[in-house]
UniProtKB/TrEMBL annotation:
Transmembrane segments: none annotated. Residues 67-76 have a biased composition (Polar residues). Residues 55-76 are annotated as: Disordered. It holds the Pfam family Zn_clus. It comes from the Eukaryota. One of its GO terms (biological process) is DNA-templated transcription. This is Zn(2)-C6 fungal-type domain-containing protein. Keywords: DNA-binding, Metal-binding, Nucleus, Transcription, Transcription regulation, Zinc.
Length: 343
């Protein structure tokens, strides 16, 4: 006869939304890591035990790109901390106060404690530089050098430009690309203008120019510049507000990348030594490449908190359809005029 043990049935564990989903007020599956964080390529606050250090092998882009933890700095902890230090929070606040108004491509309203470490540290660099506090610019340069080594050592993780398998269906590592763009902008900012080209624009140092070209080529290879590709990353059941923020973030990143390319003469006007014409074209960004509509509703994008969000939100802004690509509104339609003005 089998002995029956009477035990109290354990209730299934309560599922909690992650920090990112709570901030955006979107549905979270409650299991680490949640699908929303995976899709955005950020660390999920539910995933406390996931390691951030990854050994990257050359040519591993398509295998590693689906892992949101695969772009750490060597100096960063292997686990993310929910509570940032007061000093780090101070310089992140300065970033949003002094740098963000000029380059508003990171969504402040949904920025959380669990963002990709590389992105956070790249923002801290600019916060340090812009603070004008004692010794902070030298500290910014030191941290910039550490991040530079990490970015270049892990090129195989993020650089899709030379991967035969990279396509628009691959994960878009937006936080990593945002961090690299900030890194490049700081390189230009900290060199104090450098040598001017014939168009009176400063030149990036060759290693930084190469980094910018690789970033541009990667974005092209992954299809980031295409509005239909942006729409195809979401389904009808996704919360409209979440889709809007995500698409706007890609559009604003693309425009910031285009602006950075135009700011430096060598990045877009000159062909690197050893590049053929086709390769050089893939590493430059022109107005005709911007196949998406202009960003919408700046007050909503800049809203922080529920009150600001509700006051700026309009019903039509959240309407997205895979069947309506708004091709007549694409920036690329104005390529002839804009290229003529920019020269």
């Amino acid at each position: 006869m089998q002995k029956v043990h009477v035990t109290k049935e354990t209730a299934p564990p309560t599922k909690h939304a992650c920090t990112h989903c709570r901030t955006l007020k979107i549905r979270c599956q409650g299991e680490p890591p949640c699908s929303n964080c995976l899709r955005r390529g950020i660390s999920c606050s539910l995933d406390h035990h996931r390691q951030t250090a990854v050994d990257v092998q050359p040519g591993d882009y398509d295998k590693r790109a689906s892992d949101p933890q695969s772009m750490p700095s060597r100096s960063m902890s292997t686990q993310l901390k929910a509570n940032r230090s007061a000093m780090q929070s101070h310089y992140l606040a300065l970033y949003f106060q002094r740098f963000h108004p000029h380059w508003p491509f990171i969504h402040k309203g949904s920025f959380s404690d669990y963002e990709t470490p590389l992105l956070v540290q790249s923002m801290v660099v600019l916060g340090l530089w812009m603070s004008r506090e004692k010794d902070t610019q030298s500290k910014a340069m030191d941290l910039h050098k550490v991040l530079d080594s990490a970015i270049r050592e892990q090129t195989a993780v993020w650089d899709a430009s030379s991967s035969e398998d990279a396509c628009s269906a691959c994960l878009w590592p937006i936080p990593t690309y945002q961090a690299i763009l900030l890194h490049i902008i700081f390189a230009g900012l900290s060199q104090g203008g450098g040598v001017l080209g014939p168009d009176l624009k400063p030149s990036l140092a060759p290693p930084d120019r190469n980094l910018l070209e690789r970033l541009v080529a990667s974005c092209k290879k992954l299809g980031l510049l295409s509005y239909p590709n942006m729409l195809n990353r979401y389904c009808q059941d996704d919360l409209a507000t979440y889709v809007w923020v995500s698409i706007e973030e890609v559009k604003r990143f693309n425009l910031a990348l285009f602006r950075a390319c135009r700011a430096f003469t060598s990045a877009t006007k000159q062909k690197s030594i050893g590049q053929d014409i086709a390769d050089a074209a893939s590493r430059t960004l022109q107005v005709c490449d911007l196949q998406f509509p202009w960003p919408r509703n700046a007050p909503l994008w800049n809203a922080v908190g529920k009150a600001e969000w509700l006051s700026a939100a309009t019903e039509e802004v959240f309407r997205h359809s895979q069947h309506d690509t708004l091709e007549e509104e694409w920036i690329s339609n104005s390529a002839g005029v804009l290229e003529m003005i920019d020269g």
